[in-house]
Amino acid sequence: MNRNFKTTFLLFHKPMTVAITFFFLLLSFSADLSGQEIKWKRDEPLTQPELQLFHSPHVVDLPTATTLKKWDLEFEISHRFVPTLGSGIEELYGFDGPVNMRLALGLALSDRLLVTIGRSNVSDNMDLWAKYKFIQFRHEHWPLLAAVKVGIGWNSQPQYQVIADRSSTDSHNFQFFGQLIVNTLLNKKLGIGVVPSYLYNSDIRFSDRTKDTFRLGVYSQYYVSPLWSVYMEWNPYISGYNLLVEQEYNSFSYGIELETGGHFFKVFLTNNKFLNSSQSLAGADIAVKDNDWRIGFMITRLLRFSR
Amino acid sequence: MNYKKLILLLTCGLVSFVFSGEYHVNKSKSNLVKFISDAPLEDFEGITDKIDGYIYWEGENMLSQSQVYFEVDLNSLDTGIGLRNRHMRDNYLETDKYPLTHFKGQLTTAAQSPDNTYTVSAQGVMFIHGIEKEIMVGATLSPVDDGFRIQSEFIAALTDYNIEVPQLMFFKIDENMQLKLDFYVKRYDKNE
What we know:
The complex is a heterodimer of chains A (307) and B (192). Chain A is built from three helices and 13 strands. Chain A is mainly beta and 307 residues long. Chain A has a twelve-stranded antiparallel β-barrel. In chain A, strand 6 (174-186) and strand 7 form a beta hairpin. The longest helix of chain A has 16 residues, at 15-30. The N and C termini of chain A lie far apart (77 Å). With 192 residues, chain B is mostly beta strands. Helix content of chain B is 15%, strand content 47%. Chain B has helices at 3-18, 82-93, and strands spanning 21-25, 32-37, 44-48, 51-57, 67-73, 100-112, 118-128, 131-144, 147-157, 176-187. Chain B has an eight-stranded antiparallel barrel. In chain B, a hairpin with a 2-residue loop joins strand 7 (118-128) and strand 8. The interface between A and B is large, with 43 and 51 residues.
């Protein structure tokens, strides 16, 4: 034991051995700072952007589950030319008017919540609605979004002679609606949506009792390129009230969409002359089988006042 | 041989290893990466603070065994409007496939000015949209308390990186994207 200690002491006592030992001690101490061992590692997860499937928050009358970036504004102007294509050249296929029109302004209160207020000229309707996206399912082949949209429509000047003397704030002038929106996008090209919808007080002419209507809206949109897409939308009646004069048919629309960095330009043919959620959910005024369409358009501009 | 001198020599040599510098992006600072594009209707710029990476050299010579690696999280780029962000991600950068862009290389020149700022150039590989391209970039390194402020500007031609340049009105943007970087690095501390 004593001999071993002496051997070890002598070994370290030799200057050359001490130098080599010291060298390796320092080398091990500083090894973590040598150029071959970079210590950097990514320590934050990469950004996961909000999942959006359809490009626009709307198809025609039905909503998509798409929302906007927080604090983005959406300004909308929509027209439905009341004369149909069947009016011919005399009415310039509807462009001579009159027109039903709507102006709206939406604000994204969060990346998932969009609130919009709008005004349209049929019955001087004001509408206020909110859409909230509550499910995002990321999948390579079957991504899925689900959202709800709820809102109120106030027909402040109903255009029905039978209730001409009714106060504009009469409770029967108000309509309420709720929609569940389920969307998918296949191969980043083909969007499909289903929108079960409920409308309360479908026919504002009746003051003795309210009416409600259930519809099961479906739509599809094919993105031909980053610029162009085509779409169709059908909103068939399921149950409830369906006898509203001039709105007893299922709404059907189809058209094209031009998309830019901040705009959507939609031009379409439709059998429905109404263009806000509550009125259009009540029904269309032309039967699809009559094959008579009217021209409509919707232009939306996305704005932002600051980042 | 004088072994005391040998020990001293080895120790001094190792001191330079001990002071070798690895600097990481300081995320507590206001870092900025800006992509600027000229477009006919309205210029737009994408900005983010999501830059990460490191710069390393040995000893006091910046060019000694230097390594540079910086990456930018492209999904974090904000052009101001959500729809335009989506266009940039989906149609051009394809960030679902290539979520990061990075530059990896080494310092090739370094000159110190009287105000103690370093003007450097780095040669390396720029990776964007799945394409790697050898480039040379210049930068200035200004000493700050615990590291450096790094500022750099250079041009990236989108076609060099196989990014389709939209030519249609409303969509058209300049083929050359100007990149501006202004960020901070601090000395790596293994105790942090």
